[in-house]
Amino acid sequence: MHFAHGSLGKRLVRVALLGALAAGTAACASKPFTTGSVSRGHADMARMSGPQLDGATASLGDAYAKDPKNRDTALSYANALQMDGKTDQALAVMRRTAIGYPKDRTVLAAYGKALAGAGQLEPALDAVRRAQTPEYPDWKLLSAEGAILDQMGKPQDARESYRKALDIKPNEPSVLSNLGMSYLLEGDLRSAETYLRPASQAPGADSRVRQNLALVVGLQGRFDEAEAIARNEMSPDQANANVAYLRAMLAQQNAYKDIAREQKKAVANQG
Questions:
Q1: Pairing with 250, which of 12, 63, 162, 242 sits 20 to 30 Å away (CA)?
Q2: How much is the pTM?
Q3: CATH number for the domain including 226?
Q4: Is residue 76 pLDDT above 50, yes or no?
């Protein structure tokens, strides 16, 4: 099944694209990584339930209030706020931090992520590009740039950025996921799956990559498979949250019901 770009709509994949952007920029933090795309703190937050994330955000907020000039605390707090849906507050934190660290690549990248989360795409692109060093290009920043370009409706430019990132970091799951989501934005579900499938199986793939694959599989009408992917390697609470996310995304613009109806017709016709 092939969806037109307009019928899918950007609202259907905006959450997933922001997740891709987060994966592309989170690894810029100075602390050691546990995956190819997310630092330990970010990976832990990605696995948290809603109440757990609220608690972590409150704790980081207290630490930030005591020392707002602490770079690492500000980065972690802004990331938690964004994951908790508080995009305006995350942007305020990162704007203040960027003023204090105007040449810090990690801070500029996170500032770009916060700008994109707040829908300020042109400034976000500028921040991420200013964080880049042409003679030593950073694949994470290239991937983040691609995610922003996709949201700006420039898929060809976005894919060029993703492929440059893959030249530096071959088979990186967060970049493959971003590339798959780029095709999803245009409604090319089969191409999206060809990138998201290996991304989900690559070492270091996190739950957001599997959520994106589950979304693409579900949009093709393979609901049981999609739910199995969403539940894979998760605690029961996180698995249920992933399935709820999947169903909410599929429910956008009645996509879930429309595909189910078409699937039933196809089965009836085969009979």
A1: 162
A2: 0.72
A3: 1.25.40.10
A4: yes
